[in-house]
Amino acid sequence: MKRTFSIGGIHPQENNLSREAHIETFPVLDVAYISMAQHLGAPAEPVVQKGDKVKVGQVIGKPTGFISTFVHSSVSGTVKAVEPKGDLAGNPVMHIVIDVEGDEWCEEINRSKDIVREIPFSSEEILEKIKNAGVVGLGGAAFPTHVKLNPPKDKKAEYLIINGTECEPYITSDDRIMRERPDEIVIGAAIMMKALKVDKCYIGIEENKPEAIVSITRAASHYPDMKVVALKKKYPQGGEKQLIAALTGRKVPSLALPIEVGAVVQNVGTSLAVYEAVQKNKPLIDNVVTVTGNCVPQHRNFLVRVGTPFSKILNAIGGAPSDAAKFVSGGPMMGKAVANIEASTLKATSALLLLTEAETKRKEEGNCIRCGNCIDACPMGLEPYLLNKLSRIGGMYDELEKEKIHDCIECGCCLYSCPAHIPLLDIIRVSKAEVMNIMRNRSVKK
Amino acid sequence: MITTIIYTIVCLVVLGLLFSVVLYLVAQMFKVEEDPRVDIVESLLPGANCGGCGLAGCHAFAEDVVKASSIGSFYCPVGGDAVMEKIATALGQEAVKTEPRVAVIKCHGTFDNRAKTNCFDGYASCKVMASLYSGDTGCKYGCLGKGDCVSVCKFDAIHLDEKRGIVEVDEEKCVACGACVKVCPKSIIELRPKGPKNRRVYVSCSNKDKGAIARKACSVSCIGCGKCAKVCAFEAITIENNLAYIDASKCKLCRKCIDECPTNAIWAVNFPLKVAVTPNKVEVQNPVVKNEN
């Protein structure tokens, strides 16, 4: 019996159509649009001006708070503009627009493909290198990695957990890097173990990726403290709290961080980025983006430089198919619809998914029949139907807080399982933001 | 048989008397002293409990008014000056006149003026839509057209014109309670003074983008060109973030700005048609009463 988490979860169709497509390097385009808000927390502040010459890997944005990080140029050329541009949701975000000239990299970056195993750095040096390379969590939330690897003094990390579950349907970027670059990922994990000063590491991979399990197991055999665990397929196993439950059986309390139970979770993509940052001095300037969908004739996995417009990625697959009705950045469950196709990729962009009208069209909302499917599906043990009811009344913030709406991880299992097609998540998400705002204001007052 | 009925009646009467005495004593013991004027003031209020005054409802308003030394800082937008005067008389104070206000929608991005760039398929609520993205047109600032303001209005004063995709205020019914202003995620509703004879001039746009981008998104957007500010003799118009704003307290309703505006973003409502007399010809020059189209 393979392990998985015990509460809730669903089994959406996998649709891993692009899993056999090798990672191809996406060509560098004429213009790059690099966003300053590529991570959770405060956006970076531009440190270059119009007319400045930049090289690949040069810092162009500096952090503006504790939870914030550096942004680097992914191309070489001249800064054309520093101006607000629409992000994928169409909201204005500060961007640095760079006219590309050649492909000149910063000298300190080691571009050779050789695997560097020795880790001569101390824990502090590793954290400094990760911070300077602008590494963020590539599992989706884009939380600055150096913050996560530096837990508060009174908390002790016991485990490093590497997340190779890739539980979202369609996306295969993590699968591909695990198959093609397993050694780098494993060394990245070893670096993070050293940074955290832990001696236990689990690498969790879902069983639908047997090749990745084999390659990572082989690479991890160099490190006796690392254990590769094949997990039963279930969504949302890639959620931090679900993955911790699946691998260690520990339950992260409400409102607490994983460090509360001694765990730090990092994605395999992050692990690769950490390896490149520490061993090769290469900042996070590119990542693997899966381009897929049932209507797409060719499924691809591209290694894309940060700041490439989605429209240009579509051009590379021969334009959007005529029946594609919706573009999604990320997977179908937690991805965000791309309202502005001219928006550019971010560090944590994992996929560009094309859905047809039949796949994406919302069905008409019916009445709740109290079947309880949403309660069974919720991986956080919440009662989505009740949260929906309370939210629609309006102003029931105390009750919503009592029902722990703040625990919602917005995975969408409730919406997926609802036979009446009630837009549970849409409504819960808005109330959750309001409740969390109230809670934050209250804690500030105290 | 008859004795049973008599016993029952007697028992119930005795019980009833007993409980009434107990209830009376309890009521006396736990009596809450309340200023009798609170009830008087509450009876004068409209009783809509809309919260437009900024307090929890009409009772809370009455309590606070009675407690306060002067009613100057209180205003019931629903009842208006008439009600405030009555309250002032009841409390033996002088009423403070407040200019009546009305909600105006600072957007005229109808389907004709503002092309859709994508299609929103989620839950029909402005709040949900705004939490997900900037909107289904090129304009990030305008009306989302899902009608959160319509459902929050207790006076049926704001309606969604589904054919044109925009909300409209019924100024007869609007009491300026401000519920719509609070709920609008794009903050495009403003409470403005009604103006003399209900005449007022305002910029019906909230777009803060640069001119070219704003114009591309919507044909009636304010492009921040500043022509209106230049022509205004009373310094009533300011341009901030590529958006003009008319200060109602300075505006003399001359409407010069309307002729200047290249995008028809400035609105004048409730004015008669401007008629210019030229020899042998009467010509309607500037049909600016746009709220009727």
Explained architecture:
The complex is a heterodimer of chains A (446) and B (293). Chain A has 446 residues and is of the alpha/beta class. Chain A has 2 domains: 274 residues, 3-Layer(aba) Sandwich (Rossmann fold), CATH 3.40.50.11540; 73 residues, no CATH class. Helix content of chain A is 29%, strand content 20%. Chain A has a 6-stranded mixed sheet with strand order 1-14-13-17-15-16. A 4-stranded antiparallel sheet of chain A has the order 2-8-7-4, with no helix packed on it. Chain A has a 4-stranded parallel sheet with strand order 11-10-9-12, sandwiched between helices. In chain A, 52% of the residues are buried. The mean pLDDT of chain A is 93. Chain B is of the alpha+beta class and 293 residues long. Chain B folds into 2 domains: 55 residues, 3-methyladenine DNA Glycosylase II, Chain A, domain 3 (Orthogonal Bundle); 192 residues, Alpha-Beta Plaits, CATH 3.30.70. Chain B is built from 10 helices and 10 strands. Chain B has a two-stranded antiparallel ribbon. In chain B, strands 2-3 form a two-stranded antiparallel sheet. A two-stranded antiparallel sheet of chain B has the order 5-8. In chain B, helix 2 packs across helix 3 and helix 2 runs antiparallel to helix 4. The longest helix of chain B is centred in the first third of the chain and has 28 residues. Chain B is elongated. At the A-B interface, strand 16 and helix 14 of A face helix 5 of B.
Quick structural summary:
The complex is a heterodimer of chains A (446) and B (293). Chain A is of the alpha/beta class and 446 residues long. Chain A has helices at residues 123-132, 145-148, 173-180, 182-196, 210-220, 240-248, 268-280, 310-316, 357-360, 373-377, 384-393, 397-402, 413-417, 424-445, and strands at residues 23-25, 31-35, 45-46, 53-54, 59-62, 71-72, 77-86, 92-100, 159-164, 200-206, 226-231, 263-267, 286-292, 300-305, 324-329, 336-337, 351-356.
